[in-house]
Amino acid sequence: MSQTDAKRIVRAAAVQIAPDLTGRAGTIERVLNAIADAAEKGADLIVFPETFVPYYPYFSFVLPPIQQGPEHMRLYEEAVVVPSPETQAVADAALKRGVVIVLGVNERDKGSLFNTQLIFDADGSLALKRRKITPTYHERMIWGQGDGAGLKVVETKLGRIGALACWEHYNPLARYALMAQHEEIHVGHFPGSLVGPIFGEQIEVTMRHHALEAGAFVVNATGWLTEEQIVSISPDPKLQKGLRDGCMTCIISPEGRHVVPPLTEGEGILIADLDMALVTKRKRMMDSVGHYARPELLHLVHDARPAQPVHRIEAPADLIATPEPEAEDV
């Protein structure tokens, strides 16, 4: 990090709002409004929750598989194609405001859905599209698996940014793959309004630990459901308990401390200034992929090739038989 970088301040915004459970158009409108709100507060980086567009598939947590068909099909219809008018609208907002945006979407790719994280740089370009490598528990009924190509830190206007979704943070090798690429800001996001209070507690532990281990800032956003939305997902009071709490929108320093108090209920936007000099301050003491690493003893093998269902092997040109010329008529 140069002297100029050492004096760099990044204003981060972590957004905790409710999606529009009726479809992507309403949720995209909420995204664009939140971008404008955060940008007016001076934000350079704006982070949204997991698969926020059109909405996290909360139904899959409380409905048995045999009853999920209609809601799963509706999610297919409302999911986001990349690129699309929806992603272009977010890219345009990033360019207009000069901000970096990290947005979670349900991505539709032909016959499959994926839990996808999109990083838009401040020039409106899509710096990264990555897919959650392993959907968790009930999510395996909904999404396909990502690949190692998405375990990538990207250089943005604000510095080096990496991202993981939800329980990917419990895969230490996935986290190490990003740490080894020297991420300065790590973005996490979770669904929120799920499981109960213990989920929020676990998120806090996980985010603070990653910040310490990576020597990076962590900006994490979780979603929120209103009481009306919870009732619309399930009328059963017992199942509704699984759709409350579990929120921990937070911004953590490389020293593992909250930069501002976390947001654990309701809607809101956390704003905090990140003093990037703290990255070097932490790594001077413990750089887990540098002077504190022992790669000759322990190292990670990361297959960064995109997963392909077909690997076509063409015959070399010199082995392709040349047809014999037809005999001329006598």
Itemize the secondary structure elements and their pairings:
Blueprint: H1 3-6, E1 9-16, H2 24-40, E2 45-47, H3 59-62, H4 69-78, H5 85-97, E3 100-109, E4 112-120, E5 126-131, E6 154-156, E7 159-165, H6 172-179, E8 185-190, H7 197-214, E9 217-222, H8 227-233, H9 237-240, E10 250-252, E11 268-275, H10 277-285
Parallel strand pairs: 1-2, 2-3, 7-8, 8-9
Antiparallel strand pairs: 1-11, 3-4, 4-5, 6-7, 9-10
Could you explain how this protein is built, in words?
GO terms for molecular function: nitrilase activity. InterPro entries: C-N_Hydrolase, C-N_Hydrolase_sf, Nitrilase, Nitrilase/CN_hydratase_CS, Nitrilases_CHs. The chain has helices spanning 3-6, 24-40, 59-62, 69-78, 85-97, 172-179, 197-214, 227-233, 237-240, 277-285; strands spanning 9-16, 45-47, 100-109, 112-120, 126-131, 154-156, 159-165, 185-190, 217-222, 250-252, 268-275. The protein is α/β, with parallel strands linked by helices. It has a single domain (8-319), classed as 4-Layer Sandwich (Nitrilase/N-carbamoyl-D-aminoacid amidohydrolase), CATH 3.60.110.10. It has a 6-stranded mixed β-sheet. Helix 2 runs parallel beside helix 5. The radius of gyration is 22 Å and the shape is globular. It starts with a helix and ends in a 45-residue tail after the last helix.
